[in-house]
Design a protein that fits this description.
Length: 477
């Protein structure tokens, strides 16, 4: 069977001016995981439109497309094209789970929720000649996953080819998050066995890792065992966690000993009233400043996430947030406009109040206003969002943030990381188009290490540098 797996480009990743580096960071692990279930004699290819053009002149038997909200238009276009040629087209992902009836018009089969239990059932049904129109995930486990087909991924196209996922979902229930809709009907947070996760890490080449888990620290017992098992591997890694997890005694220390050097933290807002409104309970009454100081004291850089446009935000929120972030010495910041995704409690609340402006999914990208704000105009919200990015990443702001570090090495590290992320986007575009983005990985490793030299050999505890054998992380088809 000829199988083609496609990750269509997000709308915001197709700028005619340059290709932002963040869309060439990680390979499509979800599709590579599903490929692991195929038979050895199946001919399978994975195409990531963020880093390569899609050749639509072929005639596969089975086409699998992963759909996010701002790639939906492109995904449906490709699905319709291949269906017209007689291919069996499957659609899955966050957007499909949120709006299954919409997706079903463009597919022979749709998948709702995670694919670890539904995808094998579909393949058995397909080979028996009776594939269903829809599969809904109900069993949630990461036990017994086949190896991820990393051999189908061109590592040279990605800055972070060693991305990895060792859990699914998140234990929290924020109103604006897609997660609750995606995991409806079963457990919304579960992990791999620690030994399976360590085996996956042990096999990956090089030194750097990026955990793509929504909340790597979400199960403290699992995280503790994972970090203890990673100690001595010589890895440098990045991940996402919460303020609550950072402040938990002992857990951060174990992560740092295992190689943590940069953490994505969802601060979301500097207004406590917003946290209660969005049910961001894990941040309420937490000392953001203490969490940042704790990370910096342990040599961990901070990527702070902030959302603008919650109902207690007025037009002053942008300057206040940026000034606070710079003053705290946060190395990088990711800003978003509040976006009510279909299937979330926020969407239901906005729809009931008649505050949604339209359903043009291309604009549900956290960069455009798609609802009526409460305490400012839509124009003020959108303009303030762009101003926040400009102001935070000005050279003067980067140097001010760097000046909060107590050592010269710390200041240089801050400046290099922040500037490398945002100040050289046209240069990143040239590197991406030249298919040389992987060559920048040693620079990233050097910055993460704080200038310390890399250890010789691969990441294995045995130090022999073996292997690019597949991982055990799962998917979100």
């Amino acid at each position: 069977m000829r199988v083609k797996m496609i990750l269509p480009a997000l709308t915001e990743a197709t700028s005619p001016l340059f290709r932002p580096i963040k869309y060439a960071l990680f390979p499509p692990l979800g599709l590579a995981t599903l490929a692991g279930y195929l038979d050895p004699d199946d001919e399978v290819t994975i195409v990531d439109e963020h880093v390569q053009k899609i050749d639509t002149s072929d005639e596969p038997d089975l086409v699998v497309i992963q759909v996010y909200i701002t790639s939906a238009r492109r995904a449906y276009e490709l699905a319709d094209l291949y269906r017209a040629r007689g291919a069996h087209v499957c659609l899955g992902g966050l957007h499909v789970t949120s709006l299954p009836q919409e997706a079903a018009r463009h597919a022979d089969t749709i998948f709702c929720g995670p694919g670890e239990d539904t995808w094998p059932r579909f393949l058995a049904d397909l080979r028996a000649g009776r594939p269903a129109r829809r599969y809904d995930s109900t069993e949630r486990t990461l036990a017994g996953l086949p190896p991820v087909r990393r051999d189908l991924i061109d590592r040279s196209r990605y800055l972070v080819p060693n991305s990895i996922v060792v859990s699914r979902g998140c234990p929290h229930v924020c109103d604006f998050c897609y997660k609750e809709a995606f995991f409806a009907g079963g457990k919304s947070f579960y992990t791999q066995a620690v030994d399976a996760a360590l085996a996956e890490i042990d096999r990956l080449p090089g030194r750097h890792l990026y955990f793509l888990d929504d909340h790597l620290f979400g199960n403290a017992r699992f995280a503790t065992a994972l970090f203890e098992g990673m100690r001595g591997m010589g890895r440098l890694w990045q991940a996402a966690g919460t303020v609550q997890a950072v402040l938990r005694p002992g857990l951060l220390e174990k992560a740092v000993e295992a190689g943590l050097r940069s953490l994505f933290v969802g601060f979301e807002t500097v207004n406590a009233a917003n946290l209660a409104e969005q049910r961001k309970w894990q941040n309420i009454d937490r000392d953001y400043g203490a969490a940042i100081r704790r990370l910096h004291e342990h040599g961990v850089m901070v990527n702070g996430s902030f959302v603008f446009g919650m109902d207690h935000d007025d037009a002053s929120v942008f300057d206040r947030t940026v000034e606070w972030a710079i003053g705290q010495g946060i190395e990088t910041a990711t800003f978003h406009i509040l976006t009510p995704y279909p299937g979330t409690r926020l969407y239901e609340r906005m729809a009931k109040a008649g505050r949604l402006l339209h359903s043009d999914w291309d604009l549900y990208d956290t960069r455009h206003v798609v609802f009526e704000p409460s305490r400012m105009t839509a124009r003020q919200l959108e303009d303030g969002y762009w101003r926040a990015y400009r102001d935070f990443y000005r050279w003067g702001s980067i140097l001010r943030g760097a000046a909060t570090k107590p050592t010269v090495a710390g200041r240089l590290r801050h400046a290099a990381y922040a500037a490398g992320w945002k100040k050289f986007e046209p240069l990143w575009d040239l590197v991406i188009r030249a298919k040389q983005v992987g060559r920048a990985l040693p620079f990233l490793e050097t910055v993460l290490a704080g200038g310390l030299p890399s250890r010789p050999g691969g990441g294995n505890r045995s130090g022999d540098g073996r292997g690019v054998t597949p991982s055990l992380s799962g998917s979100r088809l």
